[in-house]
Amino acid sequence: MTIMKKIINISSTEDTVDVIVGYNYYYEDEFEIYNINHDLFESAYNYLQNYQFEYTKFKNNNIEGNITLDENMMIYTSIPYDEGWKVLVDGKEVKTEKFADSLLMFKAGKGKHKIKNSLYSTITKTWINHFNHFYRNFTINKKSN
Question: What is the full DSSP assignment across 2-39?
Answer without folding.
Answer: -----------SSS--------SSS--S--------HH
